[in-house]
Design goal:
- Two copies of one chain form a homodimer.
- Chain A has a single domain (about 1-375), classed as 3-Layer(aba) Sandwich (Rossmann fold), CATH 3.40.50.720.
- In chain A, α8 packs across α12.
- By secondary structure, chain A is α/β, with parallel strands linked by helices.
- Chain A contains 13 helices and 14 strands.
- Chains A and B meet through α6, β6, β7 and α7 of A and α6, β6, β7 and α7 of B.
Chain lengths: ~375, ~375
């Protein structure tokens, strides 16, 4: 199958490109390399060194014998996006090309506006480009479990849901509540995609994914093939951040009491899930929502697990409660449905989280010296209030 | 009171400026004059000639003895917005400065993106500027009844509502469904405003207003004080469009079967309602939702009324069913709550719709010859599908 990845240079984008290429798909991708610059902007770097897009593609050719086509460019430029899609003529387009950090969106008005306008424009451009070039292209859009917030109802895997409001029955879009401008940009995207689906019958999978952890998939057989791994307070998701903290001998930065429960998955499970969704598109014209995760943990449980695994590797770490920079409940109900991916074959986590932690900590240990100068960018500084 | 109007050059913006100034408020305003250009862009014009911002302000001074301060500029430029708010130091800011046409937003990808990014950026800038300059400023934001779509439940006047979902009780944001990118931009705005209110305690009134009709308020005592009146398929709201069609002897453009029921109000009732909301702000830190309308009509009823009044003025017009360019239900339940404005004193329509139709048709008749060349821009051309 011909698959195009928007945001191919990112953490998931590059890993997915390797997986799809290894599976025999014809892979192309677009990236404006913004994340590389924006991580530098906050004074940080990737925990594992990554190659340039050109070096990556050369390495993929040499190591795996695959040809991945890379286009540097910005999908908020409509003409460029449409032209590139027309040239590649893919059957599926995976859309990761959005600003993906909640703290980054909360830095100030400039970052708030960048996040909202960049993310909404890219998605609207994709909608129109697909409608124009070939309305049968399957749009696989990365959203986040964070769009749901922490509701008291069971989180469904659906675009619409039946409700009762003051004695009247109606079918409404699944209620959402964003915890940052980033999360709201994803909620707005979902509404925009759903509107386009109803109006023009475009075929879509809207993925609600939990935070991803891990540094490896089997295809990463050469250091030039590493995908980025962020750990700072702006770009690092919680478990990846904990691992770097452990390696640097810093206390694990648990936000508040740590009862925040989220739906996690490994990098391997993320690319595997994405492959399943790409290989098994919905019927033409359908809008499919897939919740994508394998396990539920509180951020305190993750800190305790990191401490345990670090100890096995000879590192003693402390867990420290930091004043929560975010506005979020630290104790709440959380029950997301997950049926779509299991029905396609995602039966259980393909990686044990403790094993993955060990792999990740070892990968980061090899970079300990390189990461020493970045100690200052890990503790939470970007505050919601 | 010091009141600043964003979008002071528009249909409602200018009329409200006159009303507030006449009531003794100190009025300033910002406008980028985009609507003037965008109406020209679609080959149209205002049905009643309007003066330049400078001439309007001079006329207001001469005729009413009031000083209105005008700043030409774009609120999507944050530094300009913040500086102007700091200079004026208003107690309330009324925000009309958005792209306000549903068909305009549906022309193509460029117009879709302009609508979404312009509207969201302006509102986010306003949020941050108020937070920075003085968080006590009352933000009065113009939304639309169209944000609700046509639900089967009674439309509440609230940000949140209690629901039952699969046996679980929760409080969610009031369900919305936009019928165009324009409508979605307003829905996204509402979510963004509500998020900012919860996070930073800003004081807000989010107005859900129905379509406004009419050419006059008592303050318009001089032709130089006219506010714009749009009638083309892109910019004209339904009743204003019907009046121009009647005057030009064209069939009234009823979209589809005409059962679409909406919540209407006259220009006089709109500025009166806005005055009531400005003069009676919510408690500091509160988020108030006000549904703003006086009467419910289907677009068919409005066509019949226009036909009746035109006949009294010696004009015979036909009603013609046009293929509906929009995607909307033409027969539906519609029961919006309205309590906030009546509690502040909006007891009944201050204008009889038939009297207003007469006034409007007479105003347009004086411009008949001027409008002849614009016959081609009235029938629906911008199609949703």
């Amino acid at each position: 199958m011909k698959v195009m990845i928007l945001g191919i240079d990112g953490y998931l984008g590059w890993a997915l490109a390797l997986r799809l290429a290894a599976d025999g798909h014809e892979v192309s991708g677009i990236d404006n390399l913004y994340t590389r610059k924006a991580v530098e902007e906050v004074g940080s770097t990737t925990a594992l060194p990554i190659s340039s897009p050109e070096e990556r593609i050369t390495a993929a050719k040499e190591v795996m014998g695959v040809d991945i086509r890379f286009y540097e460019g910005d999908i908020t430029k409509y003409a460029f996006l449409q032209k590139t899609i027309r040239k590649e003529n893919p059957e599926a387009i995976v859309h990761f090309a959005e600003q993906r950090s909640a703290p980054y969106s909360m830095i100030d008005v400039k970052h708030a506006n960048y996040t909202l306008t960049n993310n909404l424009s890219g998605t609207v451009n994709l909608i129109y480009a697909v409608r124009k070039v070939d309305p049968r292209i399957h749009i696989v859009k990365m959203g986040t479990m964070g769009e749901f917030g922490t509701p008291k109802f069971d989180i469904p895997e659906a675009a619409f849901i039946d409700v009762s409001i003051n004695g009247k029955e109606d079918r409404i879009t699944v209620p959402k509540w964003g915890g940052s401008w980033y999360h709201w940009s994803k909620v707005h995207d979902t509404n925009n995609l759903l509107f386009a689906n109803r109006l023009w019958g475009l075929t879509m999978t809207d993925i609600m994914q939990g935070p991803v952890y891990g540094s490896r998939i089997p295809e990463i057989k050469d250091p030039r093939l590493f995908t980025r791994l962020d750990f700072d307070e702006v770009w690092g998701t919680v478990l990846n951040r904990y691992c770097v903290e452990a390696v640097l001998g810093m206390p694990l930065t648990q936000y508040g009491q740590g009862g925040q429960t989220r739906a996690f998955l490994s990098l391997e499970d993320s690319v595997h899930s994405l492959s399943l969704l790409i290989d098994n598109p919905p019927e033409h014209g359908n809008y499919r929502v897939a919740n994508q995760f394998t396990e539920l943990y509180s951020v305190r449980q993750l800190a305790e697990m990191t401490k345990e695994i670090a100890k096995q590797l000879g590192i003693n770490v402390q867990i420290k409660e930091f004043e929560n920079p975010r506005v979020e409940l630290e104790k709440h109900y959380y029950n997301p449905e997950i049926k779509v991916l299991p029905a396609l074959g995602l039966t259980a986590p393909r990686r044990n989280i403790r094993d993955e932690l060990k792999v990740m900590i070892r990968d980061v240990m090899e970079n300990k010296e390189r990461l020493e100068p970045y100690r200052g960018v890990i503790a939470p500084k970007t505050k919601w209030r």
